[in-house]
Design a protein that fits this description.
heterodimer; A: 2 domains; two-stranded antiparallel sheet; 2% strand; B: 410 residues; mainly alpha; 17 helices; globular; disordered C terminus
């Protein structure tokens, strides 16, 4: 009797911990793109959520195409859909930088307003194209079930999938930023724009690709989301504040900080959800973040760059 | 000598424009509109309170708050709590299991009035709460942030998070706040029925008069040395600090003023519309209020009122006939204002009024009837209104500190 309740407690803890890690990977995946755009470039992209929605709708379209034209391909399409989501969001981000963002680098508050306008437009375009109803792509069979670790612990496979994707993208971003030629250029441009230009880095191009890459990662996040929840025209905007808080809380400009803050926010919220109801858990988590930010405005991890 | 009569009277912030606005609001609208439209206009005017608060805070102070809906909501909810208590007297709520408490509490199995509702039986307390609670809240947030030199984008994001927190809290605590539906069925103010036609007229004029009064007060404040300091702080914060001014205190003061003004708007909103709900508190309404200011002109108190009126009139018009177009238009408006008219309507007006004057003078001069005044003299009064886009931060070589001005902390 005592032993069984102990093991039940253990499995509850394990499941709750897993829920926290799941939330953590979702938050991290959403925040990574923003960490690049906001953390590296200092640009506030309020349309970030809509780029996620673009990724999600791309996945939906892929699933629709595969279902109609090559049903045999159904089990594998998801990986191609993620790539397509990245591509579409990347391309669109590139155009947005070209047409809008690059005129506003010197006015960060105005960028915020302009990208908010962009997000309204995108929402409406998505609504007119795909309808106001929420859609979700047909998931391949293998993504739907759950894994029985023990008798009482079940781990959903789609959660594992999102986690895997998060790890993959995080590593990719880290390698790109810190181990590649392109990352070197980005970091040089962030540290000293004039000097970078003087040594022959095309800073305008670096900005454009950086912004587009951030948008592309948002697209991947959107694609990953379709495995967990359905997509509507405004679903992107639901997450925008959380995403910004993750980046600010972690300390802008630090990838490690973003990971740490996504982890602490995700775990805090899911643990609180176990004791309180959902909305109070969210309120307390947000209040804690805001409170900590008021005491420590530079965030969790301070990037050691002389400014 | 910087003071000139011309500047005092003309320009989009001059007394002439304020007087003109007063005529438009208090004479033209009541004559031109039927009661339904006038009531709508009155509702828009309450948003204008938030917009003029943002003019002082954002246009002059350079601090963009994306959480002004919070203060609008605090004012509105304080008024709504008083009205709700008056509407829930034991007589009219006797079918409830606990008579004498608001209906939504009864629906949520709350049997006694919560302690923080008790003082709202008193109208004096309510009026005080409308002014003091938002000011205290703003002081608390402002002191925590500005003293640590958090500004710019960080401030915008954190105020936005606060708007989100308050919305979730109001919706989640249904038993205490009325939840997502808000506080509805507000009927009387001290026995005076606010739903009648005459009450609607009176409330409209009350709103208009208070609005003009607040504008005049802020206009006066911005014309003093304090207003100059705000501008200086916006453009070169470090220099003001090195000159010995406590920059943080000025910002906190400005934030409190903007909060109080917004809360007055919220309270008048509740009176005119007869309900208050979380949909006027959250992120979207807060950002919409910024667009009113941006469209009207972030440097012009009077312009912000016209901005609020125009954007809302457009919203009502479009969402009636082409609902799918409205978001596109609003988004386009956002982008266009930011990219092409950073000074909004007021900026356009001033640009063209200068041109118009020049044109008139050259015409008169050609006829040889009036000696032409030197053109430059006519244009100079406009210069102080010119917006200076906040200092280059993200990209200039010396702007490496980016948005968080934290040079003092390391």
């Amino acid at each position: 009797m005592d032993g069984s309740s102990m093991s039940e407690m253990g499995s509850i803890l394990a499941m709750q911990g897993f829920a926290g890690i799941s939330l953590f990977s979702v938050l991290l995946l959403m925040a990574l793109g923003l960490a690049i755009i906001f953390g590296q470039m200092g640009v506030i992209n309020m349309a970030h959520g809509e780029f996620m929605a673009i990724g999600a709708y791309t996945t939906y379209l892929c699933s629709h195409l595969v279902e109609t034209y090559m049903p045999g391909f159904q089990s594998y399409y998801f990986f191609f859909a993620v790539a397509a989501a990245f591509g579409v969001a990347f391309g669109f981000g590139y155009l947005v930088e070209l047409g809008l963002i690059r005129f506003l680098y010197k006015r960060p508050l105005d960028t915020l307003l302009a990208t908010w306008g962009l997000s309204l437009i995108l929402q409406q375009v998505l609504r007119s194209t795909f309808g106001a109803r929420e859609v979700s792509p047909v998931m391949p069979e293998w993504l739907l079930g759950s894994m029985h670790v023990t008798e009482t612990i079940e781990i959903p496979i789609n959660g594992l999938m999102v986690m895997g994707l998060t790890v993959f993208v995080t590593l990719g971003v880290f390698l790109l930023l810190h181990r590649s030629r392109w990352g070197l250029r980005v970091r040089a441009t962030v540290q000293n724009r004039a000097m970078s230009g003087a040594v022959g880095i095309n800073t305008g191009r670096v900005d454009r690709v950086t912004f587009a890459l951030g948008c592309g990662i948002a697209g991947i996040a959107g694609a990953a989301f379709t495995t967990i929840a359905s997509t509507g025209p405004t679903s992107g905007s639901l997450y925008i504040v959380d995403t910004f808080l993750v980046v600010v809380f972690g300390g802008a400009g630090s990838l490690l900080g973003t990971v740490a803050s996504a982890f602490s926010i995700g775990e805090t919220q899911s643990i609180l959800e176990f004791f309180l109801n959902g909305s109070m858990a969210k309120v307390i988590t947000l209040l804690a973040i805001v409170g900590i930010l008021m005491m420590r405005p530079e965030g969790l991890v301070v990037s050691k760059v002389r400014r | 000598m910087t003071f000139s009569l011309k500047k005092f009277f003309s320009g989009s912030n001059g007394w002439v424009s304020i007087a003109l606005l007063a005529v438009v609001i208090l004479v033209v609208f009541p004559l031109a509109f039927d009661l339904f439209r006038l009531n709508l206009t009155g509702k828009y005017l309450t948003y204008a309170f938030v917009a003029i608060g943002l003019v002082t805070l954002w246009g002059y102070g350079g601090v963009l708050s994306l959480g002004q809906g919070v203060f609008f909501g605090l004012g509105g909810y304080a008024m709504a709590m008083f009205l709700k208590l008056e509407a829930s007297d034991p007589e009219s709520t006797k079918i409830q299991s606990t008579p004498g408490i608001p209906d939504f509490m009864d629906w949520n199995q709350i049997t006694a009035l919560p302690w923080f509702w008790e003082p709202f039986h008193s109208f004096t307390f309510t009026l005080l709460a409308i002014l003091v609670v938002p000011a205290l809240f703003a002081y608390f947030i402002g002191a925590a942030m500005f003293k640590r030199r958090v500004g710019g984008v960080y401030f915008a994001i954190i105020t936005q998070a606060i708007a989100l927190i308050l919305t979730i809290l109001i919706i989640g605590q249904q038993g205490y706040t009325g939840g997502a539906n808000g506080m509805t069925d507000l009927k009387t103010l001290h026995g005076w029925d606010i739903r009648t036609d005459s009450a609607k007229y009176i409330l409209y004029f009350l709103t208009g008069a208070i609005l003009i009064g607040v504008i005049a007060g802020l206009r006066w404040m911005l014309a003093t040395k304090f207003g100059r300091l705000l501008l200086a702080m916006r453009d070169r914060e470090d220099r003001v600090r090195f000159s010995g001014y406590d920059v943080a205190n000025f910002k906190i003061f400005m934030f409190c003023i903007a909060a109080i003004v917004s809360a007055i708007g919220g309270a008048l909103f509740t009176l005119q519309v007869g309900f208050m709900s979380p949909s006027f508190v959250g992120i979207v309404p807060s950002i919409e209020m910024v667009i009113f200011t941006a469209v009207g002109g972030r440097m012009s108190l009077v312009g912000a009122v016209y901005g609020a009126l125009l954007v809302n009139a457009g919203k009502t018009l479009f969402s009636e006939s082409f609902p799918e177009l409205w978001l596109l238009l609003m988004g386009g408006l956002f982008i266009a204002v930011v990219m092409f008219f950073p000074n909004g309507l007021a900026g356009l007006y001033e640009k063209h009024s200068a041109k118009l004057k020049m044109l008139l003078q050259s015409l008169l001069a050609r006829r040889g009837q009036v000696a032409p005044a030197p053109v430059s003299a006519t244009v100079t009064p406009l210069e102080p209104e010119k917006i200076v886009i906040p200092k280059a931060r993200a990209r200039s070589s010396k702007g490496k500190k980016r948005v968080l001005t934290s040079e003092g902390s390391r």
